Amino acid sequence: MIRRLKVQNFLSFLDETELNFLVTHKAPATPKYSFSANEGDRITKIMGIVGANASGKSNLLRTLTFLKWLILESFGNKPEQNLPAQPFLLKEAPFEPSNIEVEFEWSNLIYRYQVSFTQKMIISESLDALDLTKEAVERKRYRSLFMRSYDADTEEYIIKSNNDFALSDGIREISKKRLNASLISAAIFSSHRESLPIQEYWSKVTAKIKQGGKNVPLEYLVFQSSEFYHKNPNFKSSMEEIISKCDLGLLGLHIEEVKVSNSGGEEQTVYVPYGRHSGIDGKEYRLPMPRESSGTHQIFVLLSTLLPVLESGGLAVIDELEADLHPELLPALVDLFVSEKTNRKAAQLLFTCHATPLLNVLDKYQVGIVEKDPEGTSQAWRLDDIEGVRNDENFYAKYTAGAYGGIPRPGKLSDVAQ
User: Contact 404/396 with Cβ under 8 angstroms?
Assistant: First the structure.
C-alpha cells in the first residue's frame, strides 16, 4: 500500500507537495473506507483528485508513473539517454534538482525511497525500511538499506549499504557510473533477492494517464482489452457480471478469435468483441463492439485495468475516471475498492475526476484538491487539511461554490472578443 508521496520541482509542482494516504485518528474508524495497517496506522483505500483544467492533477499522477519507471526499468535506458523527467520550467534557473520521496508498505516492511535528480542524472538516492514489529514501529526506527550519491571529483557514485541489503560487488560496480539508472533498477536487473519485494510492489502499480491530447484511440484499447479477457477468463466473467449490473442492456460479451493479415502479409490473431443482447423475440443477438456506446467501450477497457489490481492488491492510477461514463456509474466503480467483498487484498485506487458529484461518495480524507496559481505553480492539499471541514458537509455543493479552492472561475468568456 502506498502511504505518502512528496514531490518538488517536478512538472508543474515547484514547491514541495505531499499526497498523504494516511488517515488521521480523528476520522471515523470505518473499515469500509480505510485499511488497518499492521503498524496501527490506517490507510485510505481510495483517493480522488479534483481541480480545474490544467491545474496539475495529471502531473501529480505522473510522479508515480515516473517512479515506477525509475525503480523497475531505468537500467534498460541507454547510458547516454536523459531521464524522462521535466523540472518546473517557469523560472530563470530551471536546472535545480527535482526531488521525490515515496513511502509504501509491502511484505511486512515499510519502505521509504528518496531520489534527487536532473534530466541528465540521478544526484542521490536512498532506501530505508521499517520492520513491522512492535518495537520498531513504536520507535519509528528506520534502518538504512542503501545510500548512493554522486561524487563530482571522482565522477562516480559513492555507495553505502546495510549488510541486510547485501549488494554484490557486481551491482556496486555497474551502479558506480550509470547516471541515468536507479540502483534498485540495477539490482532488479541482477536478480538481487532483497530487491524482489520492491519489484513485486511496483509491478502491481498500474496507471492509465492521458498524455497531452495524444491518447491511444479507444478502439485500439478495446481490442487490446479483448485479448486480455480472452486470455484471462476469470476476469472476463467478473467484467461481464459488473457490466450486466450497470444497466447497459448487455447480457455479456463474446470474444471471437479472428485471423488477419497485417500490412507485411503476415498472419496474426485479433480478438473481436461482440455485445450479447436479448432481442424482443427472446433470442440472443450479438452486436459488433463498434455498435455499442462509447460508455460501454470505456467501462470494458477500464475494468481490464481495475480487476487485476483488485486481484493482486496493487495500486490503480486512473486519469479522468469519468471519461465517457454516466456519473451514476462512478460510485459503483469506486465501490469495487471500498467493498471488503471485492477488495480483499488491500488494493488502492488513485484517480482524477471532473465529475464533482462523486465528492459526496467520498470522505474528506479521500479528496485531494489541486490548484495552479497565476505564476504557473501547482499546489495540492487534502480536503481535511482545510480547517473546519466537517464529515457531514455537502462536499459537492461547497466545492462548486468555491469554498475549498481548486475550481475554475473563467468569468464571461464572450467578454474576451470585444
Answer: no
Q: Report how far residue 191's alpha carbon sits from residue 185's, in angstroms, rounded to the nearest whole number.
A: 10
**Hey, which of 23-32, 74-83, 243-252, 354-363 has the most confident mean pLDDT?**
74-83
- Helix (H) / strand (E) element for 416: namely none
**pLDDT at 324 > cutoff 80:** no
Distance of alpha carbon 158 from alpha carbon 131, whole angstroms: 26
CA-wise closest residue to 361 among 342, 388, 339: 339
Q: Read off the pLDDT of each residue in 231-251 and give the average, rounded to a whole number.
A: 88
Distance set, CA 298 to CA 64, 217, 290, 321 (Å): 23, 11, 12, 10
Nearest-angstrom CA–CA distance, 182 and 400:
42
294 or 122, which is more confident? 122
Nearest of 220, 201, 224 to residue 271 by alpha carbon: 224
Query: 299 with 222: CB under 8 angstroms?
Result: no
Instruction: Give me the residue label for grid cell 473481436.
Output: 272
Q: What distances in angstroms separate CA 202 from CA 104, 184, 185, 188, 232, one per listed residue? A: 10, 11, 11, 12, 22
User: Up-side HSE of residue 362: CA atoms within 13 Å toward CB?
Assistant: 30
Is the sign of the CA dihedral 88, 89, 90, 92 positive or negative?
A: positive
Task: Provide the 3-class DSSP secondary structure of residue 235.
Answer: helix
Minimal CA–CA distance to 127: which of 105, 145, 101, 143? 145
What beta strand segments (E) does 211-282 contain? 252-261, 267-278
The predicted pLDDT at position 33 comes to: 77
Judged on CB neighbours under 10 Å (0-12, 13-18, 19+), 341 is exposed
The answer to whether the beta carbons of residues 45 and 306 sit under 8 Å apart is: no
User: Would strands 348-352 and 42-44 be described as parallel, antiparallel, or unpaired?
Assistant: unpaired
Structure confidence by residue, pLDDT tens digits, 93-106: 666 899 999 999 99
The pLDDT value given to residue 360: 84
pLDDT in tens, 47-87: 999 999 899 999 999 999 999 999 999 999 999 999 999 99
Tell me the C-alpha distance between 332 and 303, whole Å.
Answer: 12
Q: Each residue of 281-320: b (16+ CB within 10 Å) or e?
A: eeeeeeeebeebeeebbbbbbbbbbbbbbbbebbbbbbbb
141 pLDDT tier (thresholds 50, 70, 90): confident
